[in-house]
Each structure stands twice: as structure tokens, then as C-alpha cells.
Amino acid sequence: LKIPLKIRRIDRRDRRRLETILKAQAHFKPEEVQIALELVDLGLTQAGQEDYIFRIAEGPEGQTLGYICYGKTPLTDAVYDIYWIAVHPTSWNRGTGTVLLHQAEEEMKRRKARLLLIETSSRPPYGIPRAFYRKNGYEEVARILDYYAVGDHKLIFGKVLTP
Ligand SMILES: CC(C)(COP(=O)(O)OP(=O)(O)OC[C@H]1O[C@@H](n2cnc3c(N)ncnc32)[C@H](O)[C@@H]1OP(=O)(O)O)[C@@H](O)C(=O)NCCC(=O)NCCS
After folding, report:
1. Which amino acids bring their CB within 6 angstroms of ligand 1?
2. Radius of gyration, alpha carbons of the chain
3. Cα–Cα distance list, 136 to 20, 48, 52, 95, 139 (Å)
4. Residues of 73-107 as b/e, b for ≥16 C-beta within 10 angstroms?
5. pLDDT at 1
6. Which atom of ligand 1 lies at the shortest distance from residue 92's CA?
7. In this predicted structure, what is the pLDDT of residue 116?
8. How far apart, in Å, are the Cα atoms of 43 and each of 15, 83, 105, 154, 161?
9. Which residues, given as ranges, of the chain have pLDDT below 50?
10. Ligand 1 test: best mutation among 132, 136, 152, most atoms within 8 Å of CB?
11. Which residue puts its alpha carbon closest to atom 9 of ligand 1?
């Protein structure tokens, strides 16, 4: 069921579809969607910035299926954060997330990244992304209890890259 994908840079025409993709995530709170979209707008308008790098997965009919946003963590020498990854729920489990993540990882390796981090929540709806990260070689490196809310911990997943 895997679909042939093209990974490309973000483009103004993606704005509306990315909003749809973010709003289709049942577990994202409105303020999370808002923050993710603010970053999308930054990625679209701040030419030349490299703090938030966007990559889009495009399906065979040119449809935007999902995206990843990553960037170097400020004040570190070569740690990178994966800020967002999202695929439209109707396209889950067909390899799109893996292709996006692998593409981003290859680019971060070229930029000499040594540690990749992804933050997520301990809440049950985040079980799918947690399983996805583990499957891709990330492990929980830190946990801040009661971070997002009491009982909703922040988990930091990490992957060490060896040169
Ligand atoms: C995490 C996410 C990007 C994965 O994208 P995807 O295109 O489905 O991923 P892939 O098809 O490449 O990877 C499949 C793996 O993802 C997980 N997964 C994807 N869909 C799943 C589902 N419906 N049920 C259970 N696991 C699922 C599994 O680990 C699966 O591996 P498996 O097939 O061995 O079980 C996608 O689920 C998503 O957009 N989630 C919502 C957004 C989100 O929460 N992002 C992270 C914020 S911290």
C-alpha cells in the first residue's frame, strides 16, 4: 500500500492544506495548531532562514500528504530538533512519515548533526507517534513529569548519530 512520494520544499500553495492536515489531528489542541501554523508562515515568509526547515511529502497526484519541520537547536553545536511531523490521518501507515523522517535525517547528517531530539506527550493519543519514533530508532532520553498538565508528561525522544 506504499505510495510513491516526492519530498520537496514548502510552497505558498501548501498553507491551506497544512492547516487542514493539522486540524485533522484529533489530539492536537487549537493552540498547538495555531503555533504549528505560525511556524509554517515563518517558513513561507522568511526567505533564507534555516532555523525552521520544512519538507513536504507530495503524493502521485500532486497532493500534499504531510510535512516535517526541523532545525538546529539554538546554543548547541550540532543538536537538531524535529519540531513537527504530521501526515493527514487518511494517509497514515503507508510509509509517508518514515520517508519524511528519513529525508530530514539525511539532511541533518549532511549538516553534521550529532543528536536528534523530538518532544512529545505521554497522553494516550500520542501512542502512535511514540511507536513511530521508537520504530525509527529514537528512544526516550528524558521525561518531565506533569509538564503540559498534571498527568501529562513531556517525553523527549533522542537518536545519536555516529559520524
Ligand atoms: C506519526 C506520524 C507522522 C506517522 O506517519 P505515517 O505516515 O503514518 O508513518 P509510517 O506509515 O511511515 O509509519 C508507520 C508506523 O507509524 C505508526 N503508525 C502509523 N499509523 C498508525 C496507526 N493507525 N495505528 C498504530 N500505529 C500507527 C506505527 O508505529 C507504524 O509502524 P508499524 O506499521 O510497524 O506498526 C502520523 O501518525 C501522524 O501524523 N500523527 C499525528 C501527528 C503527530 O502526533 N505528530 C507527532 C507530534 S509529537
Report:
1. 25, 85-87, 92-98, 120, 126, 128-129, 131-132, 135
2. 15
3. 26, 30, 22, 12, 9
4. beeeeebbbbbbbbbbeebeebbbbebbbebbbeb
5. 65
6. 8
7. 98
8. 10, 13, 19, 25, 26
9. none
10. 132
11. 97
**Amino acid at site 144:** I
Residues ≥6 apart with Cβ < 8 Å to 78: 72, 111, 112, 113, 114, 115
- Look at residues 13, 7, 76, 73 and name the one whose alpha carbon lies nearest to residue 40: 13
- Nearest alpha carbon, ligand 1 atom 28: 132
Q: Per the structure block, which three cell numbers stand in for 53?
A: 526547515
**C-alpha triplet 107, 133, 24: angle, nearest 5°:** 95
